[in-house]
């Protein structure tokens, strides 16, 4: 393509239209290959093995209330950026823990997003929001102070229609299966309701035991009481506690179709204590008097115990370490967890995973998927580990790195040592239901671009690239998560 | 553009001419967009909010003495590279602390640079030097052993002419405002002289309190005496010491037009001690008997105190941590500070900044600009922090990373989480006056290239890209530094 | 080139043929420059200053036994990837330490490689294996389950012919000089035999003292006895031990043509103890009762002692730190060292090298080449160190990073601070003789691509780029290693 034609194309693209070549490499030769690769996977069903959508949506299939409740209030990516420029969470309706006053005028909240939409330039939120506005609601102008009300009205009107209810969108998004994430204390009533409803959409749960394995979790001791009560086990002893967890995993499999567990520890620390030491440590944490070091050791021990349970029941294990949660005490006190004040820190995998790997790392019948917020470990630690241990696989670029540049760095830094086949496709990991198609689309485009570069540089053959593109978009995730 | 035309253009470019497309992406489509973006900002005035030029230059407006004194002797990037290949600082005229003999023949020094000019291939010094040779002095051949004398003579002759005096160059460089950096003990006489002179050039100072807040700074205790004397405060008490600092900041604002402070600590450690503990710690460091740990804690406490003062007087705060200063004892002993033997090390921001952020991080009326020499923190720590805390902004790629690849990595690793609007444009941070236009030009070109890629990949609209280019080159720096 | 022509070219390339433009940048303009740069160095002789081929091959010149013994069994990159997918080392013939049964059917082993060849897509093993298949054996189809036997037969037949013996391949590969690596306890009989044979191929040794300087090395104490015996020195004293090492280095120079030493420590720790403390520490490690901390301190001290010996005898020193060796206890127990279960970890250079650098860093007559497995130190630590200290140079991208993306990151992150002339060209560092031409070819292509980008972006002149390409492929390695 000549320079003039490139410029002309750019110029003639209405700024609010999603370009069919978006996110593909600029070099025309590479783009042509990427375009074909992307086309070959663009229509594949979405397999979403890890995320945080609310199962009540699918169970109740109620209409989403309004544009701000859908796009602003629950999305920590969105209000985090606004807050960084001084717009407090109250102003965009984020509920206070003390029930204090927050903005309730949804249109006013929407206007704040619209007036500040330039802040998202260059960020994945920009991509996700525009993708949803355009592909889901047919918005054909850019969000701005001027267009705010028109777009609000258009989305609000759509949300009242049956084809914008959760199940209809689920089907329209071509979701083959989606996993939510629940605490072991959850009764999975929504999952049961979905199954009982006769609806064909496949929604499964994932077992996230942080509330009952992390002594620093709010309400930990009371949670252990509850765990005992709902399982009929005596959680005052370590043996009873472990039995309760095993029972609960079984319940998740039976009632929630669960195929995986998820562990969000501050570090990747693992331990393999003697039965005696583990029981003594449990007694300390059970009493609520554990020191931070004991809490860390207990979490470490529980990762290894969870691996042992996974060997027995076949659940794929996910480890999501490295977030310094709730870094901002003021925001945490006012608004609680998951409100955008989590900051990553350096994370060690080589030493920290050793105890677990020494015991289970050589088992090809176990799958442990590692994630990171510390990109320095991609080439230094994660790819060498996953390129060796049969039990290990690498999860996709996560959280702050679930973005075009982040995904590109992931492939560039992981592939040469771990290959493609020690990775597990894409996770959207989102609470933002409307962003799911956009996120999977970004991943497919970036992978197509990466593969296209390998083809253009004659490092991968064309036919191989098509096979790999399919594997990354569909096959690997189904295999790793047994979906 | 066809391949043949590309090659032809490359071949037909005389090797010593600055190419109009230099530093723009090679892909013709992307380059065409980058060229337009660059053209839209190339002529904007230079706002230089942080640097180390000598205010005496602007005050006295004396001629620069000779080419080597301008380009070689004071530039640690230049003699560092020569030293790495065994050419000692004495041989290029760097003064010894003991007054021992060093080369004084400026032409001989210049020839050493010329003979070794290939060492700078691929480095920013290559760009900066060639840019100054060509745009300032009209040199039309490459520096080499053969051309050394001709170029020396041409530059030397130019330096005698009035249009090469500091003020004339300042105007020719289209500098709207430049900041120097002074110690609180400086009387700012040069700044006062500039103002008194009636010259229209705007030169401001920045408040760099290291000599009086870092117990490891040479002469620290004596510096506190001086600080007391010049402010009329009693620096034997912590209260008097803090008052002295507040007074001195006020003096910097009034006499030097100061709008910012700058802090060059070895780490990003902050502390928020009780008034009592802080006073007791001050008594220790005041006595000159502080341990290294106490010195570190005092520096940490002073960052928080400085933030408190900034809340009161509105000065923007810059934190430049992470350099292991004076790594080479022999060179330090012979030549003193800032002679090229500073080496970066890993730097933590997430834990280290917590005390300061817990107290002031949520204030939108405070601006703290973070810099780093440890690129691993861009995506892991700095972008998440600046993408959340209202008080935080990110400074540009710094020192070793003030280079095409360094700037590109900065945008690629920072933008997706922090956006563009939590960054503050460019700093040249230089002592090398002649390199200022080159450095700002590099930044504008690299940013144009980055934005062009986003446009070419349809991740950013054209009109948005033009606005962002302008923001990055001009608006954001003025806003962040209140200039 | 038009998009259509690019696609056509890709399509018309038989998938099993090495493309002449492989690994060059996709942008046509940049590729055209890269092609010329590559062409200018493609035919240069191979200088291989560091590696692990077996000197017996060149001494005895016996035929390589079969395809699997050549390509699978000894290559830890190959069986590491198979193992990551659950294929145990026994199944591909890796010998067990206990002599237990492993697969001996070489054709069966080959079929396992063939059936799993897709695992290597995107990895350097894919490039190296295909390069050797095609350029050495003329294989014209891709390795797969279907082609496995045909390819096996073709290679097996070739190996019986004289032109596939080690010396013939050495000559065909255009190797000017290759270095093997031996323990100080090795008698260098193969090196002596090569020299006595009258063959013109130049094979030198490198002095790798880990077995006698690392107290954690298996058999360390017995090794010291042997060292004493073969040198006639009394290794019960530190003085005798140091004399023995000096003698042994001399022997390596005289018998093995040695020009360099190599040090594979877990960290880059160095120390500069007093003579008394060093002797006392030696007594501890000599007795076999050293703690891990003492072992670490002894290794640290020995790096400094080795630097002192290098100042005296002129051997170039290589430091290869940062591998957590034998991370997997089960595989280590079954198969021993170097079987793919080494994992890198974070490595500090700035503090750890200080004692050695304080003593010897300023000597331009000493060459210490630093390598890393921790890419985060390229721009943060290694480039600033090598861009300052006359004694330091940077080794090329190593081990897991000896790959297209790894080499590209190396140049991008190192050049701007250290330049090209503080680097030392390429090391293949391999046991896989057949991969040597492929590895050097990859390095030359990636460097050509990097330089071409600098030219295309007008950051480097064409004539300079040709000179640098030649320096990187040939001149710098000969100079740094005195070959």
TrEMBL record, chains A, B, C:
Lineage top rank: taxon: Bacteria
First-level EC class: isomerase
Pfam families (UniProt xref): UxaC
GO molecular function, one term: glucuronate isomerase activity
Catalytic activity: D-glucuronate = D-fructuronate; aldehydo-D-galacturonate = keto-D-tagaturonate
InterPro entries, alphabetized: Metal_Hydrolase (IPR032466), Uronate_isomerase (IPR003766)
EC number, as in UniProt: 5.3.1.12
Keywords of this entry: Isomerase
Pathway participation: Carbohydrate metabolism; pentose and glucuronate interconversion
One of the GO biological process terms: D-glucuronate catabolic process
Family: Belongs to the metallo-dependent hydrolases superfamily. Uronate isomerase family.
Protein name as catalogued: Uronate isomerase
Gene name linked to the record: uxaC
